[in-house]
Amino acid sequence: MAEHANIKQRVMAESSKKRTEIAELGEFGLIDRLTAPFKATRKSTIKGVGDDAAVIEASRDTALVVSTDMMTEGVDFDLTYFPPKHLGYKAVTKGISDIVAMNATPEQVTISLGISSKISVEFLDELYSGIEFACREAEVDLVGGDTTASVNGLIISITAVGRAKKQSVVQRSGAKVNDLICITGNLGAAFMGLQLLEREKRVLQGINEPQPQFEGYEYLLERYLKPRARYDVVAALSKEKIVPTAMIDLTDGLASDLLQICKASKCGARIYLERMPLAKQTSALAEEMHIDPVVAALNGGEDYQLLFTVPLDQRENVMNVGHIDIIGHITAEDTGAYLVTPDGSEIKLKAQGFKEK
Amino acid sequence: MAEHANIKQRVMAESSKKRTEIAELGEFGLIDRLTAPFKATRKSTIKGVGDDAAVIEASRDTALVVSTDMMTEGVDFDLTYFPPKHLGYKAVTKGISDIVAMNATPEQVTISLGISSKISVEFLDELYSGIEFACREAEVDLVGGDTTASVNGLIISITAVGRAKKQSVVQRSGAKVNDLICITGNLGAAFMGLQLLEREKRVLQGINEPQPQFEGYEYLLERYLKPRARYDVVAALSKEKIVPTAMIDLTDGLASDLLQICKASKCGARIYLERMPLAKQTSALAEEMHIDPVVAALNGGEDYQLLFTVPLDQRENVMNVGHIDIIGHITAEDTGAYLVTPDGSEIKLKAQGFKEK
Whole-prediction pTM value? Predict the structure, then answer.
């Protein structure tokens, strides 16, 4: 009970203590610091903190993978231009993309909401119609959730559960020297879609009946507002009998996400500028907005494409899958992680951090 | 692509459409409305929306149960008086209590945070030391999470995973006429702890070096700030070979939570005023603050005790467990759900709803 007699002192003490800003550590540093004291003790915990999803024993040969994400209004989405139906769709994508990144099949999701007073029932109807659409498309069941009030802004938390044979689960930590670095789809499109939406918001601020100019860039909007998780790739890899050595979904940007694989696998990497797949609209809008397309490709997040590594001898199989680009290879840890330009110069890859507002 | 050409119209349309306030439906009405269009399609989904936790196939005879909760600052907790260490502890309790309510053993949790700029690294260190303490005590592993920024206020989302033999999983829907209604511990203590904290906050507002008066009510503070989930009860029931017919954890208050069992089990209930277990401190503070202790018992939430039903012939076994009170019995659906006072009059039980600020 002495504990409670001290509540006041605790609260008082808090304000006089040293204060370290979160930005000083960065998101990854913060997570490392907070989770360091935790030790897994349950034998059912196959893989805990430190990957796209946790891996939990299901039966002798199967595992469940569980992942959780949070999105907050004003940081992860802007309701000025984000239609609620798309937002619901994207929340599901965000959840199941982590499951796909473990090479598992997403099967269930739960959605929790923090709801501010400005949100109407009709808004939530739209949000849930997007959630329902995404669930039906991905053959995933909504199995639960929670609702609470929020003093300010909408909050969405999504937990996704998937299933895989234990031997098929792919973590970030298995990349080996000389493995090929592969990516699905193209890079930076979601980032450029966001730039376009933010530009039109700025330009049209305060204007009655605004007429945003999106012509020619519809693909970029779709990549940002309604990205589909690449669960099709899990099936395609399985068909070609490819089990990647490491995999991650592209959410923080190629540079950050590749560095996560390098950190977990204790390796370096070389990726090549001329092999970066960019959509035409991505390059065109980048030029129009005077943004270096390489920045969009390396640091633009939220593409929800997959980045994975395979042994050199699986090059043929990867080619058979189609729509996959080999952008480089894994090197020894002490060589670092670099982007190589056509003239042979090397640019060090840097991680992006916590989005703070 | 036509979809995206219409973004503006969608956003514009939103504002002119009918607007229904969430309070008009209430939390339970809202959830029913939003989740109605969803149909479970995966054969691994044993039980979806509508219980304390979802039930997912693990192996031939075991199931995993998964639950998710969200807590937002200013609604679910007040950092003026909630020490961060206790808050971390309580978040874990909130998560694993739902697992316990399915008669399953909690094994893993994930924690996601939305972090506002006023939160320091030292605050999060304290929060995580409470999380770590609760995990160690309950033998639960922290296996993942997510962090994002929050424009306003701290947000905590917790997902808990547990395991049970399929035949031991207890849902809300199995209560039968004449079953005994049982509760663990006592009622309304957390509610009175909250009243005390709120009173001291009001009284001491603006005072330098406030000296809150908590003497004699330390138990109530502990019940509100640091409640322990009743995972011990799952083990005790198993030892006595009791499988409840229905179970729920007491989070919204006895009236609301019993009505959930009645709704899911399509039954009524009679509970008896003189059998309500109240702690001495609960009654004493209620008297001091002119609060009807019956209101605290019926509508005070967050006790994290268990409410369950068993067949009449298990009365002996329940008594053997100890510290369990039989407060009434299940009746036919058309008789409704009532509290019976010592003079024989009946008071209709009413559900509490969404906490809106």
Answer: 0.93
